[in-house]
């Protein structure tokens, strides 16, 4: 295998969005599909929760990886006040989430972790997202597209729900699932330290 084809890291995520974003950065990686529990602990702050999940995924990847290359883990949550909006369980759950986001500003927190057997570095990126007012018929029509079913906060900014966003302050790619700038810096820093 020549130098340009050598694997550089693993991605501990089955998310096609994260795969696509990491591909854009030009690193050579393989995907590790892992089943890591995503359960918020009592009293856990949203930012601590998302950082822990990213760390847990990266460390689970380190344990499962066939070689000692670094493992990238990430997690994204939607936060309104102190409420963490997970993936909706059904239409009523999605409607409740989207109605609560309607006409308001919320935060999307994405944590990215790069782990090796020796260490784990975590970066947190918080983006403010403003939604325009949504009506019930719109929310129901959106649910029928199938897009919100497996998305935190019941929406995908890179999909149909992009039309709900009136303003965004921060990282668009972090809202999609992987902050390009911070992820690139994290990987570059690691690769430079291990040369």
UniProtKB/TrEMBL annotation:
> Please, which domain of life does this record's source organism belong to?
Bacteria
Gene Ontology cellular component terms for the protein in this record:
cytoplasm
Q: Where in the cell is it found?
A: Cytoplasm
Q: Which reaction does it catalyse?
A: UTP + H2O = UMP + diphosphate + H(+); dTTP + H2O = dTMP + diphosphate + H(+)
Keyword terms? Cytoplasm, Hydrolase, Nucleotide metabolism
The Swiss-Prot or TrEMBL record lists the needed cofactor(s) as:
a divalent metal cation
Query: Which GO terms fall under biological process for this protein?
Result: nucleotide metabolic process
* Known role: Nucleoside triphosphate pyrophosphatase that hydrolyzes dTTP and UTP. May have a dual role in cell division arrest and in preventing the incorporation of modified nucleotides into cellular nucleic acids.
Supply the PANTHER family for this chain: BIFUNCTIONAL DTTP/UTP PYROPHOSPHATASE/METHYLTRANSFERASE PROTEIN-RELATED, BIFUNCTIONAL DTTP_UTP PYROPHOSPHATASE_METHYLTRANSFERASE PROTEIN-RELATED
Protein name per the record: dTTP/UTP pyrophosphatase
């Amino acid at each position: 295998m020549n130098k340009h084809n050598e694997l550089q890291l693993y991605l501990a995520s089955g998310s096609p969005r994260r795969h696509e974003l990491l591909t854009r950065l030009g690193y050579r990686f393989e995907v590790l599909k892992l089943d890591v529990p995503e359960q918020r602990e009592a009293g856990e702050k949203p930012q601590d929760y998302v950082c822990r999940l990213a760390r847990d995924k990266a460390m689970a990847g380190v344990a499962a990886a066939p070689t000692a290359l670094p493992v990238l883990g990430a997690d994204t949550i939607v936060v309104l006040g102190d409420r963490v909006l997970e993936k909706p369980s059904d239409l009523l759950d999605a409607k409740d989430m989207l109605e609560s986001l309607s006409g308001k500003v919320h935060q999307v927190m994405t944590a990215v972790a790069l782990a090796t057997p020796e260490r784990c570095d975590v970066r947190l990126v918080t983006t403010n997202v403003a939604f325009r007012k949504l009506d019930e018929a719109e929310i129901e029509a959106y649910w029928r597209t199938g897009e919100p079913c497996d998305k935190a906060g019941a929406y995908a900014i890179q999909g149909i729900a992009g039309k709900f966003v009136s303003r965004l302050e921060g990282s668009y790619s972090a809202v999609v699932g992987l902050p390009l700038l911070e992820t690139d810096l994290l990987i570059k820093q690691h690769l430079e330290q291990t040369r």
